Amino acid sequence: MCTGGRVALRGRRGLAAAATCLAAILTAAAGMPQPGVQHPSGPIGGPELASQGVVVNYPAHGAEALPKVKAAAWVIADASTRQVLAARDPHGLFPPASILKVLTAITLMPVLNPDATVVTTRQAADQIPSKVGLIEGDRYTVSDLFKAMLMISANDAAMSLAQATGSVSKGVTMMNAEAHHLQAYDTVAKRPDGLTGRGQHVSAYDEALFGRQALTIPEFMRDERLRTTRFPLKPHHKPVTLYTQNTMLDSYPGDLGGKIGWTTVSKTTYVGWARQHRHTLIVTILYCKPGTEMTYAAKLLNWGFAMDGKVRPVGLLVNPLPAHPAVHRPPAARHPQRVLPPPAKLGGPGVPLLAGLGALALAALAGLVVAVVTRRGRRAGSPPAR
To answer: Residue 203 catalytic?
Structure first.
């Protein structure tokens, strides 16, 4: 079985476990949904969350039917009580697209000084397609980069923030560590921007954990509530105006913010927050048709506010593991920073690896796995990349 980022190999069972892990990696890379990571104590959050279909426990009387949501996976949960009110395939593995930036933000906001400056590298400036337009060699504050990343999903800002930790690889390593700290075991991060990366995946349940953690970070929720902001793109020039992509701030009562993502592999993904009648709900949606995500989010939120406290929860959002040792923000830069050298490659530990297998064993397993993936895979759509 895959445990702790390694594969324990013991005879034929070990070989079978290695084949299962390799299948999961290849399938996730192809953007095909897979069951979530299995744990000895059962699915994280409760046994009902093992379902790959819709799971809900209606009351005997006064039940309001769930809306029809044409998405492969979703979760609606109460942030305060931690109750998962209803879900569909909550632990299925899916490519995240730009909603992985929520994990990027909740990981890096607590450790990066918002007033520090980061010099844009060529690697960051060259990111596409969604970008704020960072200029190589120019300096931007961490707080401005977070706004650009969360409001307009700027991939160049996400890359620059990861590089502010020392390298992109270090930033991604920190993201995977934070996912583990939150018990988001379905998540493997490979890129800070969420664009397609081999072996990268999340679940609707894990995104709800990230969403709940985001509520504890004032800077994050402040940026999420912004409709517009001014971004100093060029020194000594008039700042450009950034407009949030989350139109629910003006169309849904009590909306606190939301993050959208889409690629050809992931289709559209979404995570959002809303507060009504002293209840704060989190909604996450994976793998739906572009342009439908906020309509579905509003429908799930409406149902959640109507049925919160009436339905028996199908599970719980687990609490984080014991806190990491205190991490102090570095002081703001007083002198010009040197340009960080581009890292050799993206990625970081966290993806299950076939440790101990040689090239010959991998080649033998690949044939078996390809056959399995071919039978079980789903075909992904072709919306525009983000």
So the answer is: no
